[in-house]
Write a structure and sequence with these properties.
It is an enzyme of class 1 (oxidoreductase). Its EC number is 1.1.1.60. One of its GO terms (molecular function) is 2-hydroxy-3-oxopropionate reductase activity. The protein has 14 helices and 9 strands. By secondary structure, it is an alpha/beta fold. Helix 12 packs antiparallel against helix 13.
Length: 296
């Protein structure tokens, strides 16, 4: 019998499916629940167990990992008679890897504590590729002892794993991450349109730019998206729109000015309003092309 903790995984989307599979590869027992049957079938094919409900998935779990789109979904799966808090065993550890508001994480930890359940917030950065390759950056908020307990599991999912402070701190750092990523993608998109309109070899230009101070993980990961206009979602505009709302609201609450971030947040919102919300966030290129008079 394995001595590894039993894991329940709630939310098997673009990120959750490959992450749960990496835990299976690492030898963990994973019971999962999500709303899409094909995702449950994928988990079962990989060696996991598909559950018929949240309650069924979490009832025997030592660690419950959640990866859902936003705060309303975290609240929906956590609370109520069919939710995690009513059905998880005392002493269980919830590792919420969703990207949500810091306050939602703080509230969840407080409410879980009343049930004898522990929580850490552990949002990630790295996109679908990082999830598949198990090289995610994981920013954590919570108690040191709970972080230490979760660390071996997190090490099967990512490479850079840091406890950033008390509950909600991981979400605050993730909000800052999303600010940097959005501004970086926007800058890259503007550079691409500028280079193409100037008649420069775009592939060569992006190679040399990425070798200097302008280089970034964003440019490395999204270069082919820009070159091929391939906007298959690794991280959807809809989700980045949600995250830009989180960071601008949190910044306002603490009195931090985000002049460039606020502009990029509006550009993300505009792209979404034009029907591109389901595309990868590298599709910010489409917004720049439209502003530059190109047919998209």
């Amino acid at each position: 019998m394995s001595t590894l903790p039993k894991i329940a995984w709630i939310g098997l989307g673009i990120m959750g499916s490959p992450m749960s599979e990496n835990l299976l590869k690492a030898g963990y027992s994973v019971t999962g629940f999500t709303l899409e049957q094909d995702k449950l079938d994928r988990l079962a094919k990989a060696g996991g167990t598909a559950a018929g409900s949240i309650a069924e998935a979490v009832k025997d779990a030592d660690v419950i990992i959640t990866m859902v789109p936003a705060s309303p979904q975290v609240e929906a799966i956590s609370y109520g008679p069919e939710g995690i808090l009513e059905n998880a065993k005392q002493g269980a550890l919830i590792v919420d890897m969703s990207s949500i508001t810091p306050q939602t994480s703080v509230d969840l930890a407080k409410n879980a504590k009343e049930k004898g359940i522990r929580v850490i917030d552990a949002p990630v950065s790295g996109g679908e590729a990082g999830a598949i390759e198990a090289v995610l950056s994981i920013m954590v908020g919570g108690e040191q002892a709970d972080f230490d307990e979760a660390l071996p599991i997190l090490e099967a999912l990512g490479k850079t794993i840091v406890l950033c402070g008390p509950h909600g701190s991981g979400q605050t750092v993730k909000a800052a991450n999303q600010l940097i990523v959005a501004v970086n993608i926007q800058a890259c998109a503007e550079a691409v349109v500028f280079l193409e309109k100037s008649g420069v070899d775009l592939n060569a230009a992006l190679d040399v730019l990425n070798g200097g101070l302008a280089g970034s993980t964003v440019l490395t990961r999204k270069k082919d998206n820009f070159l091929n206009r391939d906007f298959k979602p690794g991280f959807r505009i809809d989700l980045h729109h949600k995250d830009m709302g989180i960071v601008t609201d949190a910044a306002r609450n603490v009195g931090a000015a985000l002049p460039v971030g606020a502009v990029v947040a509006q550009l993300v919102a505009s792209l979404r309003a034009q029907g591109d919300g389901g595309l990868d966030h590298s599709a910010l290129l489409r917004a720049v092309e439209r502003l530059s008079g190109q047919q998209v």
